[in-house]
Amino acid sequence: MSYTPQELKTIVSDGLLSFPLTDFGTNLEFDQKGYAKRLEWLAPYGASALFAAGGTGEFFSLSPEEYPDIIKTAVDVCRGTVPNRAGAGGSTRQTIAYAQAAEKAGAHGILLMPHYLTEASQEGLAAHVEAICKSVNFGVIVYNRAQAKYKPDTLARLAERCPNLVGFKDGVGDIEYMVSVYQKMGDRFSYLGGLPTAEVYAAAYKALGTPVYSSAVFNFIPKTAMKFYEAVRDDDMKTQHELLKNFFMPYLDIRNKSAGYAVSIVKAGATVVGHSAGPVRPPLSDLKPDEVQALRALIEQLGSQEL
Q1: How far is the CA of 200 from the CAs of 106, 197, 206, 241, 287, in angstroms?
Q2: CB distance 16 to 213 below 8 Å
């Protein structure tokens, strides 16, 4: 099933978003069978959309040769169950190639990742986004973080030029900035919370008009992730505070022990619950044994994650 950009905008304007891990074998090669099993396991838990090869999926470490296989596997496994977007980023030409490969593989849209490394003017960023939007027919969501931070006026100009630019994901966490973007763009975009461990910011972002967020922990505690999302949706502050105190804040203590652990800790969690995605690829590094044990204790007190 295909979706128009506006249909995808509607889909990602509600619900919890899944950003699955990418499975690697001990030789760090893409493990297609393991990845398919992961997606099959997660599909029934109720995420409203899936983003293959995103940040949690280690997009930055994927080769152009394996990228289409990852996207096609996600599309084939989740066909008819969960709408599928793909991560795409890098230089303008490289991103166009990824975006077109994702469209050919059957993805329903892309999350436009930062171009990395070099700084860029607003004019340069706008030209980058416009070129990518015009290279495909499906929906595009821009990811505001790192070297790709878009001013509200830039977003407004892009919205006029690119009808298929339908969403804005924030990975910065500047409340004043988010208010200015929302006030400028209104319902022209869908808005996604995209900070690492987004649950910690979820209630604040909902108050700003950004009720949807991507959950990395959905990869290993999907039942708890959905429970927390429902608590945010329903303004159940008691449940939110309990889970923040007993799981998410201690979890952040482990995550913050080393740069890059935002992904590594998710892979460790998947291993703890019996759904290993293998090791992370360099330059990331896996958690140390004592850190894994601390994470295991946090997960075990949440109870079974099986449906």
Answers
A1: 33, 6, 12, 10, 21
A2: yes
Q: How far apart are CA 188 and CA 206, in angstroms?
A: 17
What is the token pair recorded at 217?
């922990």
Output the 3-class SS for the chain: CCCCHHHHHHHCCCCEEECCCCCECCCCCECHHHHHHHHHHHHHHCCCEEEECCCCCCHHHCCCCCHHHHHHHHHHHHCCCCCEEEEECCCHHHHHHHHHHHHHHCCCEEEECCCCCCCCCHHHHHHHHHHHHCCCCCEEEEEEECCECCCHHHHHHHHHHCCCEEEEEECCCCHHHHHHHHHHHHHHCEEEECCCCHHHHHHHHHHCCCCEEEECHHHCCHHHHHHHHHHHHCCCHHHHHHHHHHHHHHHHHHHCCCCCHHHHHHHHHHHHCCCCCCCCCCCCCCCCHHHHHHHHHHHHCCCCCCC
Q: How far apart are CA 251 and CA 224, in angstroms?
A: 14
Give the pLDDT confidence of 254-290 residue by residue, as tens digits.
999 999 999 999 999 999 999 999 999 999 999 999 9
Instruction: Provide the whole-model pTM.
Output: 0.96
Contact by Cβ (8 Å): 88, 122: no
